[in-house]
DNA sequence: TTGTACGCGTTATCAT
DNA sequence: ATGATAACGCGTACAA
């Protein structure tokens, strides 16, 4: 491993000059600068990230913190999101250090310890819920942070997502315009803020049309395919008047689809089913799901971009919505 | 940020003693050891990973190098694999630093530079192909390394996968036993070593039955759903005698499935289609795919385990196969 | 058993 | 423009 010391020796200058040349300081003669750069290339010099981080008290590493991921996930969201962050990180010469929050195994290490031990430049969080213990930690933390799909009430913390409320309204307006008058809502985990936003979008369109929300039209699927299936098995037989179901996630929509098929309810003829997320499965199930497309890769890219601005102290809004799109397929 | 210096001050000992106590050195009085540990807890001390790595010339970080991943991947393999590595890493207090090899954008940084800059303890590689430029680098590299799904001809480099040859034979024997006599093979990317192994498994069962392999029964789908679709569209109409198709990947099998459906070929009645990998989609398509299940999470966990042993100089075989399973669904 | 002192590779401050 | 030198936090060889 060759260091600036070696270069300094060969170039017959001090290590300080080498450091300056390498970091593009103006206080170096163009001549010696070139000579040092040339030498660095010849010797295949690469700076030691540890040493640099140690003295600068900050590494060029983003922490990527993901919560609630288990093996056998039924979507590629984490993968896509990670790639988005990675793409931006690499464009600025940063790396990604992983941290998985396991609510069951309860990590011994907190995300704060994680960030400090590695002098992370900042962290990006994905999949967190408002009831996560980590969520609170962020508030008193001084570490730059951007949340994906979770609003940040604190000004120091950034946040990027789609406009879930508006997206839910788009879905509902689409259904209303297609003539549906009795629309049920399949809700997700209450502690996920997106659930609330999508639900409020549902309610607002109901209100707009002068329709009272009926509490037994609100189902709970817990963002799980199985729970959704069970909920629909119990609900559909008693409610033939329902012609449309808006699900807060594709996975739940897929569970609902199965329940409908088993009960002999034709989708979309007797029941329109709309999902949310546009996960990979959405276009492969039968019938293909009409759903709201979220570009997690883009979302995460923007999150990384925002994080970098925050770190560098550049002006940036601390909240950003990226576009979503209603994808109309055959389920409704 | 509190350091051993702070603890030393409060405990009225030298930093050397603190360091020893923290690292479980025997040369510390139990009394002072306890006092220091207690103090460390009180002060919420956490070691600075950078400083430690700098002096030890090795960090407690695994590099996770993944190649050929693009946004919108149609499987969760990377995600699952990453979680497997992560699980083991956390169990020994290690972290994961990401590195994505992008064959198109051709990274400026090599994986070796990446590893050295961060003094990585070792690296795990997934998705590499034998024609990858990185593959050669591994040979002269001194960095501990374990490959997933890619055999290592070098003794210093570890490797873990399933027995692809045996798995292919299992599939073929299953088909033969069900009475199939004319079986086509849909091959993947030639540079992926798994392709070759699966193909050889196919050939060996053919030979075992005294059947000559026919070159026009070997199709090429390039591990792509679209290419597989195109290949089958051209192949099926001219070969009604074919009753079974063994695909080197599920994604290609799904493409084949679509081609068959569009051509009015009933699966599995007229054509049995077998996949490989058991990706998430396999159980969601119609008909659900019969395929070989690979536990990528487990594979990666074992890879991390092997890597750690190599790093620690513990005895370990440098090659390991984990179990696979033929999952019989409805496609064949 | 404990303390002193050095070195890891780098950046940064102060002279020159 | 350049050089000497002090940090950064930690591990460890050597001395006591």
Beta-strand percent range of chain A: 15-25%
Q: CA-to-CA gap between the ends of chain A?
A: 62 Å
Query: Biggest sheet of chain A, in brief?
Result: 6 strands, parallel
Spans of chain A of 5+ residues with little confidence (pLDDT < 50)?
none
Determine the structural class of chain A based on helices, strands and strand pairing: alpha/beta
Biggest sheet of chain A: strands side by side, in what order? 2-1-3-4-5-11
Helix content estimate of chain A: 40-55%
Task: Write down the overall geometry of chain A.
Answer: elongated
- Tally of strands of chain A: 12
Gyration radius of chain A, rounded: 25 Å
Describe this structure in words.
The structure is a homodimer of 332-residue chains. With 332 residues, chain A is of the alpha/beta class. Chain A is 41% helix and 15% strand. Chain A has helices at residues 4-11, 15-22, 30-42, 49-56, 77-91, 111-117, 133-140, 164-177, 193-208, 225-235, 250-262, 296-311; strands at residues 61-67, 95-101, 122-126, 145-148, 158-161, 183-187, 218-220, 244-247, 272-274, 291-293, 319-321, 325-327. In chain A, the strands form three sheets. In chain A, strands 2-1-3-4-5-11 form a six-stranded parallel sheet, sandwiched between helices. In chain A, strand 8, helix 11 (250-262) and strand 9 (272-274) form a beta-alpha-beta unit. In chain A, helix 5 (77-91) runs parallel beside helix 12 (296-311) and helix 8 (164-177) packs parallel to helix 9 (193-208). The longest helix of chain A has 16 residues, at 193-208. The first copy, chain A, is elongated. The model of chain A has no long low-confidence stretch (mean pLDDT 94). The interface between A and B is large, with 48 and 47 residues. The structure holds a DNA duplex (16 and 16 nucleotides).
